[in-house]
Amino acid sequence: MARIFITGGTGYLGSVLVRQASAAGYQVAASYHHRLPPPGAASWIPLDVCDAQAVTAALDQLRPALVIHTAYQQSGPAVLPVTGEGAGVVARAAARIGARLIHLSSDVIFDGEREDAYTEDDPPAPVSPYGAAKALAEHLVAAAHPDAVIVRTSLIYGFDPIDRISQFALDVAAGRNAERLYTDEYRCPIYVDDLAAALLELGSLTYRGVLHVAGAERLSRYEFGTLIARAWGLDPAGIRGALSAESPVPRPRNCALAITRAQGLLRTPLRGVRDVLRDLGRMRATHNA
Fold first, then answer.
1. How far apart are the two ends of the chain, measured CA to CA in Å?
2. What are the two backbone dihedrals, phi and then psi, of residue 21, each rounded to the nearest 5 degrees?
3. Judging by beta carbons within 10 Å of its beta carbon (0-12, 13-18, 19+), is residue 52 exposed, middle or buried?
4. Among 275, 164, 176, 156, which residue's Cα sits nearest to residue 227?
5. Which of 118, 220, 236, 258 has its CA 20 to 30 A from that of 211?
6. Angle, vertex CA 189, rays to CA 122 and CA 87, nearest 5
7. Hey, how many other C-beta atoms are within 10 angstroms of the C-beta on 195?
8. Per-residue pLDDT tens for 54-69?
9. Are 73 and 58 in contact (CB under 8 A)?
10. How many Å apart are CA 110 and CA 113, to the nearest integer?
């Protein structure tokens, strides 16, 4: 099988990509920065995506057929150089060796002020530093590697291990956290295993340009939290709602993504949260039978 290089291989999505790619027979190389990698499954490379010389040298040596760029920084002073400019560094290095590139972007590049779902043709209009960095990344990737796939996705969740957003909802429902969940902030959460499988499938296709790959269900953060709480046997009445519109910090509210194009292109199902939880319940029932 071909060699694949995954940046941010120790991250939540990156670790699932490493696992799935290894199981599929790829020769897997992956980078890490702050978090030390587990043994096996991949050839691990310490790498700062802001270091153009190091990134170029790594890809020149590895010569992967496919690069999936998941590394990012969500907050702090490194948001722009890592999330924004670092994506351009990786794109230039991938283009230099003729590797196929899949770049992970986000639904928060939009301002969230429209009522219907955003399509691939809608221009970015970020209202947060992270959104601005992701928008810059899209621009740099498209300029450096015109054949790249820029995948916009949404809230990524999973249960092995449980992601921080789902755990936050469980803590709120159980009374361990007094925060509230927004009832007017909408996303299309995607199960991490579904997203990883879709990205690997895209690696074998010829599609280029922007593609929305998210879950098939539009949910508020509050609705998402109540569904997770019920699935874990907790009373969702412990979750209180709040309005994102009243937040002192500007937040994009409706970041729903239209995924019709991806659904027509991919064999991988892009399940909604209720479908994922239903399938999980069936697996538990079968295991306990």
1. 38
2. -65, -40
3. middle
4. 275
5. 220
6. 55
7. 26
8. 999 999 999 999 999 9
9. no
10. 8
Asked if the model's pLDDT at residue 236 lies above 70, the reply is yes
Residue type, 122: D
Tokens read off for 198: 């879709």
Please name each of the domains of the chain with its CATH number: 3-220+246-288 (3.40.50.720)
- Report the C-alpha gap between 50 and 55 in whole angstroms: 8
Rounded to two decimals, what is the model's pTM?
0.95
Q: Is residue 289 pLDDT above 60, yes or no? A: no
Q: What residues does 220 pair with on adjacent strands?
A: 186
Output the DSSP codes for the chain. Answer: --EEEEETTTSHHHHHHHHHHHHTT-EEEEEESSSPPPSSSSEEEE--TT-HHHHHHHHHHH--SEEEE-----SSTTIIIIIIIHHHHHHHHHHHHT-EEEEEEEGGGS----SS-B-TTSPP---SHHHHHHHHHHHHHHHH-TT-EEEEE--EE-BTTBPHHHHHHHHHHTTS----EESS-EE--EEHHHHHHHHHHHHTS---EEEE---S--EEHHHHHHHHHHHTT--GGGPPEE-GGG-SS----B--B--HHHHHH-SS----HHHHHHHHHHHHHHHH-
